[in-house]
What does this fold into?
Amino acid sequence: MRRLRWQVAAGAAVGLALALEALAPVLRWLWGGRRRPRHEVLFFPSQVTCTEALLQAPGAKPSAAPAGPGSPAGCQCSLPHCESALSRLLRALLAARASLELCLFAFSSPQLGRAVQLLHQRGVRVRVITDCDYMALNGSQIGLLRKAGIQVRHDQDLGYMHHKFAIVDKKVLITGSLNWTTQAIQNNRENVLIMEDEEYVKLFLEEFERIWEEFNPTKYTFFPQEKKTQ
Amino acid sequence: MRRLRWQVAAGAAVGLALALEALAPVLRWLWGGRRRPRHEVLFFPSQVTCTEALLQAPGAKPSAAPAGPGSPAGCQCSLPHCESALSRLLRALLAARASLELCLFAFSSPQLGRAVQLLHQRGVRVRVITDCDYMALNGSQIGLLRKAGIQVRHDQDLGYMHHKFAIVDKKVLITGSLNWTTQAIQNNRENVLIMEDEEYVKLFLEEFERIWEEFNPTKYTFFPQEKKTQ
It folds into this structure.
């Protein structure tokens, strides 16, 4: 009887070990494959900080003078050199290695413009959709991006192309209330969500491609209807 | 030897059953507690549809005339009575049972205004934060909400209160590029995310409470600095 008990106990231990081994991939899949997607929320206004270290082109020469406390090598400016909402937004964009889709109502921030040009220089495929009313305003980055060879398309509608989103490497969606202007970055209450989430990315990418095709320049008319002022 | 094998096999089966039973709550927790949060994306412009069925107050009398095809009982209007981006946004708001926080740059949509008043009448605690420049514009809903007894606070800053988000029952975040105006709903390219996600809700609720306190009327000055026109 004692032997029988021992045998059953040993069998149970083997069974438990086998069950755990068999379930391990399922548990790993549940734990890993269904992990919560990475996400971040940025609130603005952003503290005004120096973003030179992020925006230096690979071949740029750093200054020979010693750097100030907390500043990156080569930067002598008096601005703080810490993280800010803008620097975190720049980092999220500059992570692009293959593609960047931008769908932006207004785009006049010089730092964000430089980041986009830097990505273009690095060989990232950049495409920009914008609103025709705002692309020619003073300080707009759109003309500079076009001069640099970046493809830009715009609406000719009565309504506004009012989206403010970016898609990095078809993996990360950046979207919110923020127009990419210095006024908005430094003075407004704004939010930006950075979401590594394939379902959101898919939906926004479909919206981007839909608009990209609709705003194909072959469809432009040269004397479109006047926009409503509201 | 044959008996021993049988005993070990029986023990293994018992062990497997025990292991599965012991792991069941863990599997349920992984499957249920860590389920992907509900989310939806609405893209605008929205088709113009009839939203009367959603917005009728509980005591309102439906018309005695027979309803048109596809229309809810009592509605005779010629608009389509199907779902649209606006009707889905209204549904998400009207699901509120306890609280609704609104943080909106511009709010002039009559349908969205009626939905908010309906929630207030049902006893939902509604709080509104808005931008001082836009709350007095023609067609703004802000005055009507205040007349109905809803609490409204606004900025006095040089920058804009440019958020466009709502929080339903402290459980669902509604945020995007859409200002709550008929112009934007019917004509603009816009996006709205509806997210049942406690981490996003927590961050946006903290932002709401921060601004709510900052815009406490006891802190208002009656001759604030003039806003920049940009």
Notes: Chain B has seven helices and seven strands.
